[in-house]
Design goal:
With 133 residues, the chain is an alpha+beta fold. The chain has four helices and five strands, in the order αβαββαββα. The chain is elongated.
Length: 133
């Protein structure tokens, strides 16, 4: 699913995770990470629906989702150990998932880092074999 269409889809599907007062929501990452994002948002949505189980009163809301240093980063307006665990797990998994196609792969590069499979690394001009993790 293309970037803008995906952003609209997740804001619609997980409306409790996004602040309607914000005019826009920023989601900048490749299509290969969409399943990871959906997985994280499903867990965060469940968390918001079961706040009392965690002795919490403030629901989490997503501020931004982006790629940074070859890793998926999710910014929220508040956190808890459960929320941080979800975010950390998805970030870790993204370092082993091609940003373009979602295949298991590695983060590579020497300056601008990207997590890419061999095929997409070659296609985008990242030398094969240079891994950072």
């Amino acid at each position: 699913m293309k970037h803008d269409e995906f952003a609209r889809c997740i804001v619609s599907k997980f409306d409790t995770l996004f602040d309607p007062a914000l005019n826009s929501f920023w989601c900048e990452c490749g299509e290969g990470w969409q399943e990871l994002i959906l997985c994280a948002l499903s867990q965060l949505d469940w968390y918001n629906q079961t706040l009392s189980w965690f002795d919490e009163t403030v629901p989490v809301q997503i501020v931004q989702i982006k790629e940074k240093y070859g890793e998926l980063i999710i910014y929220t307006d508040t956190t808890s150990p459960y929320v941080q665990g979800i975010i950390d797990t998805v970030s870790y998994m993204s370092c082993r998932t091609c940003e373009v196609c979602g295949q298991p792969e590695v983060t590579r590069g020497s300056g601008w880092l990207k997590t890419l499979c061999d095929h997409h690394a070659e296609e985008l001009g990242y030398p094969a074999g240079i891994e950072t993790f």
